[in-house]
Amino acid sequence: MSVLVYTESEEGKFKKAALEVASYAREVASKAGGSVTAVTFNAEDTSELGQYGVDKVLNIKNDKLSKFNAEAYADALKQAAEKEGSKVMVLSQSANSKYIAPLLAVQLNAGYAPNVVALPESTDPFIVKRSVFTNKAFNLLQINTEVKIVGVSQNAFGLKENQADATVEEFSPNLSEEDFSVNVESVDKATDKVTIADAEIIVSGGRGLKGPENWGMIEEMAEILGAATACSKPVSDMGWRPHSEHVGQTGKPVASNLYIAIGISGAIQHLAGVNAAKTKVVINNDPEAPFFKAADYGVVGDAFEVVPRLNEKLKEFKAKNA
Amino acid sequence: MKILVCISHVPDTTSKINFTDGDSKFDTAGVQFVINPNDEFGLTRAMWFKEKQGATVDVVNVGGTETEPTLRKALAIGADSAIRVDATPTDGFFVAKQLAKVAKEGNYDLIIAGRESIDYNGGMVPGMMAALMDANFVNTCISLEVEGDTATAIREIDGGKETLTAKLPLVIGGQKGLVHEKDLKIPNMRGIMQARKKPLNVVEAEDVSAQTETKKFEKPDPKGEVKLVDPDNLDELIDLLHNEAKAI
Ligand SMILES: Cc1cc2nc3c(=O)[nH]c(=O)nc-3n(C[C@H](O)[C@H](O)[C@H](O)COP(=O)(O)OP(=O)(O)OC[C@H]3O[C@@H](n4cnc5c(N)ncnc54)[C@H](O)[C@@H]3O)c2cc1C
Ligand SMILES: Nc1ncnc2c1ncn2[C@@H]1O[C@H](COP(=O)(O)O)[C@@H](O)[C@H]1O
C-alpha cells in the first residue's frame, strides 16, 4: 500500500508542516505495511524528505503552478494518488491544505478526517482521533471509504527522523484550463514575519494592554523569541491589531509549543483556540482571571512592569544560550 | 443574483461540552444553539448584496425540526426564504451532497457557507459542495464583491492574503472580515414579526451514505494546577520554561 503525502514548500523550501506530515505518513505506512510517496510542487532540492522516511518523490515542475491554486493543485494530487494507487493521503492543516482537502475528497471519493492529533488507532478499520468542539473534546472517527484523507493538526505529531533513500521522479499531471478558473490575481504576504500557523512560540496580547501604542513590548518579546504575535478578538475588532492575528474559537486555532498570553482574561472562546498549545503562560494583574486555570505558568502582575523586565531577562538568556 | 447562505446550527460558544450514551453522542441538554459565527458574517454580507445589488437571499440548513428557530432567526435578519433539508447530518459529505442538490436545483449564483462549523470543525462542507456541483470555490474568504458574473474575493492565507477572481457560480467558505464585527445584523422586532410570515420549506433528503462515522468522544485530561511565579523572580519563569517545559 502506498501512502501519499502532500509536502508543501515555499520558494522551493519545505515548510516544517511538510516534514511533520511526511513523518506521520512514514509511521502510517510502517503500521499498514507500505511505502511513502511525497508530492512536491516546484521544489528545488527534495533530499530533505528522505530524512523523514519518504521513499519516493513525485516532483512536479510547472511554471503554471508557481502560485498556489487550489483546484489545480488538487487535480495534480488526485492524478498522483491514482498513479500510485494510494489508499491513504496525508496533508497538513495549513490554510492551503485545508482548502485542497475537501476538493480532493470528492475527486477521489475519499472520506476526510480533519484536525487529526495522533496516529491511527487502527488501520483496518481505519480509525483516527481528531479534535472537535475547538479542542474542547476529541472524536474517534472511522473512515469507511477505500481511499482515506487525513489532515494532521500542526505540531500534533512532531518531526521524526527516519532515513530513507528517496528516489525522485518528475511528474507532469494533465492540467486543463478549468483547473485555473479561480484566478490568483495577487498575493500579499509578509515574508519576514513568523506566521501563527508555523510558529513554535506565540506572544499574544489582550485588552489589558490598553491600546495599540503599547504593542512595542509584545513585538520585542516576539523578536527575542523568534515568535509570532497574536491577539484576542476585541483587540482585532477595535483595529489595534490586524484580524489575521485574532486567535480563538472564531479566529485562528493555535498549536504552538509555547503560548504567552499578556493582558488576556481567558474567556472560554479565547481558550478554545489555544487549548492545543503545549505550554501556556499567562501574565495578568488579576489573580482571578480565568486564564490562570488554563495555564501552566502564571505571573500575577502588571504587564507594563513585568513584560519589559522579562524581555531584558529573555535577552540575557538568549545571549547565553545562543 | 440568487444567493444561498448555508446555515449551520451550533452550540453557543460558551456551551459546556458533554457526551451521553456511552460517550457516543453530544449531550444537547441545556445547550443554547446559535447560527454558526462564520455563517453570521456570510449572512450579513448577503444582506449587503440584497440591499445594494438587489440580490435575493435564501438560507438553508440540513437538520431536524430543532433547527427551525435558527432558520427563523436568519429570516428575521433579512433572508427572503428558508429551506430545511429534513435529515440528521451524519457527516460533512452527507451534508455537502444535500446542499449541492439544493443549490443546483435552485440555480443559485453565489453560495455562501462558513469556513468551518464551530462544533465539529470539519471545514469541509463548502469545498465538497463546490466540487460536487462543479462550481468555483474560495476558502477562508474575508472579502467578497460581485460585478456582473465575476466575483473578486480576498482569502486569508498563512501570513497574509490573496486576491482572487472567479466566475459565478461560486461557493465561498467565509469568516470574520467579510463584514465588520460592528455591522453584524441582529434581528429587530419588525424583522422577527416579518420572519413569521416568510416561507420555511421543508424538503426531503436525498439518500446518501456517509463516508465516516463517529465511534466515540473523549474529553481532554484535566489540567494540573498553574505554577505561579513571583513577578520579582522572573528568572524562575525562564528556568521553568527552559528546563521543565523545554519550551525555550
Ligand atoms: C460568539 C463569540 C465568539 C468569540 N470568539 C472569540 C475568539 O475567537 N477569541 C477571543 O479572544 N475572544 C472571543 N470572544 C470574546 C471573548 O468572550 C472575550 O470577550 C475576549 O476574549 C476578551 O478579550 P481580552 O481578554 O483581551 O479582554 P478582557 O476580557 O477585557 O480582559 C483583559 C484582561 O487584561 C487584564 N489586565 C488589565 N490591565 C492589565 C495590566 N496592566 N497588566 C496585566 N493584565 C492586565 C485584566 O485583568 C483582564 O483579565 C468571542 C465572543 C463571542 C460572544
Ligand atoms: N447541517 C448544515 N446545514 C447547512 N449548512 C451547513 C451544515 N453543516 C455545515 N454547513 C455549512 O458548511 C460550513 C462549514 O461546515 P463544516 O464543514 O461542517 O465545518 C458551515 O459554516 C455552514 O455554512
TrEMBL record, chain A:
Keyword Flavoprotein: yes
One Pfam match: ETF
Keywords: Electron transport, FAD, Flavoprotein, Transport
SMART domains: ETF
One GO biological process term: fatty acid beta-oxidation using acyl-CoA dehydrogenase
Cofactor: FAD
Boundaries of every Electron transfer flavoprotein alpha/beta-subunit N-terminal domain copy: 3-184
InterPro entries, A to Z: DHS-like_NAD/FAD-binding_dom (IPR029035), ETF_a/b_N (IPR014730), ETF_a/FixB (IPR001308), ETF_asu_C (IPR014731), Rossmann-like_a/b/a_fold (IPR014729)
Parts of the chain that traverse the membrane: none
Database matches in SUPFAM superfamilies: Adenine nucleotide alpha hydrolases-like, DHS-like NAD/FAD-binding domain
Cofactor binding remark: Binds 1 FAD per dimer.
Binding site for FAD: 207, 263-270, 284
GO MF entry, a single one: electron transfer activity
Assigned protein family: Belongs to the ETF alpha-subunit/FixB family.
Protein name: Electron transfer flavoprotein alpha subunit apoprotein
Biological source species: Salegentibacter flavus
Higher taxonomy: Bacteria, Pseudomonadati, Bacteroidota, Flavobacteriia, Flavobacteriales
Automatic annotation (TrEMBL), chain B:
Keyword terms: Electron transport, Transport
Any matching Pfam family: ETF
The protein's name: Electron transfer flavoprotein subunit beta
Organism: Salegentibacter flavus
GO molecular function, one term: electron transfer activity
Keyword Transport: yes
Homology family: Belongs to the ETF beta-subunit/FixA family.
Record-linked InterPro entries: ETF_a/b_N, ETF_b, ETF_beta_N, Rossmann-like_a/b/a_fold
Keyword Cytoplasm: no
Superkingdom as given in the UniProt entry: Bacteria
Segments forming domain Electron transfer flavoprotein alpha/beta-subunit N-terminal: 23-212
